[in-house]
Amino acid sequence: MAVNTTNNTARKLNSCNFREHKKQLFQVDMKQVTCLAWVPRGIPALKPLKAELNSNQLSDWEDTKSDDALTNVSSEEERFNDNDDTYIADSARSHPIESNSDDEDEDFLLKADDNLVLFGCCVDNVENILEVHVYNESEDSFYPHHHYMLEEAPLCIEHVIFNKDTRDKGNFCAVGTMDSAIELWNLDVVEAIEPVAIFGVRNQSSETEKKKAKKISHEDGVLSLTWNRILSHILASGSADLQIILWDIENQVGSAVLSGHSDKVQSIKWHPTESSRLLSGDTSGVVKVWDARESVCEKEWNEFNAEIERVAWNPWKSENFFKKIEIQVAASDGRLYNMDIRSGIVDVTEAHNGAVLGLSVNNKAENYVMTSSARGSLKLWKIDDSGHFKFSNKYKLKMNDLLCCEFCPDEESVAACGGENGYKIISWNIGSAA
Questions:
Q1: CA count, 13 A, side-chain hemisphere, 244
Q2: Looking at the record, which segments are called Disordered (predicted)?
Q3: Residue pair 76/151 in contact by the 8 Å Cβ criterion
Q4: Contacts of 3 (CB under 8 A, 6+ apart)
Q5: pLDDT by residue (tens digit) across 124-174?
Q6: How many separate domains does the chain show?
Q7: In whole angstroms, what is the distance from residue 39 CA to residue 188 CA?
Q8: CA 153 vs CA 18, 46, 122, 150, 257: distances in Å
Q9: Which domain range does residue 53 map to?
């Protein structure tokens, strides 16, 4: 229930050399990792805060977690703002206080060169957890720091560098689950038992709550999230209800709905430099590019003949109007596509024997792409000048269903992946792969 920070001697793993190309590290076998995200250096608070919870608040929380929680809807209704779609967390429940210095150890405090790695986990099909780990490249260290208990299994997570209260940078994580609502957690506050906000209306909300909320809300599970790095108060979500919703984080409301997909919206991504351009893919095999300002579809492709698992923009070929604007598409039949937004498919490769479940484009090493598969393989690709994929390297991990993979935002060779049997931090030898 409560979150515990790590103990230096008990939790911190032995130092390892991440530069060794074929070494896979830090596997955890007792959990399924469904999604992950990195937190860039310089974003987390160096001295995290702890939430203060009294016995009454803990008792209330346990009541809401019980099987008959729906009978206690009156207290929940009070926490819905009549003027928006969003649940507002009771500030008394998550009031941060500075931790007791007598209890602090070295690993509770963060360093300026630390990255955080966020893992959405299901443990033994019983517990659903958002885990926060610390990774430090210079120290070759990686260890769990704190975690949050979730009500539903996490399907997608997205790091959000925006504080709705200060309108400035923040350190938050949005979580999508099979519930129709989206949770927002403050990563700088440990031992929190509830998110700071919930966007939309939960599937199990009472009729009174649904009437109080506005119409903008998903009606099924949230499968994908993407934060707008230019308009930092905007978050987008794709759902099994076939809709994409744009959320105004500052005002805590759904601001627009993008309709047009005929099946589950499984992957969405904001353009890295154009604030209104959004990429999406669905399980019927359709990829769309949207103008979010006008809520209209600009481009559409439907020639994939497989479910779209992941979509991504290539940040290295996305800015100059006179050059190719490339996107990458990963499909359930094992194929990986490189596409020019104007002319369509440039190249397609049989990337994996099985669905391509993870896709990440390196923002430090030009034109490097990583994919993960349903059969436990992780591959590195280089896109050449003609737009074709060149195989560079491969890991074969002792995992089935590698559901997610992401490059570190600050180290070109470092990546994280997760799946059926846990997670790993790995290192690609980018230089020799070129």
A1: 32
A2: 60-103
A3: no
A4: 146, 147, 148, 190, 191, 192
A5: 878 999 999 999 999 999 999 999 999 999 999 999 999 988 888 999 999
A6: 1
A7: 12
A8: 31, 29, 6, 7, 25
A9: 26-433
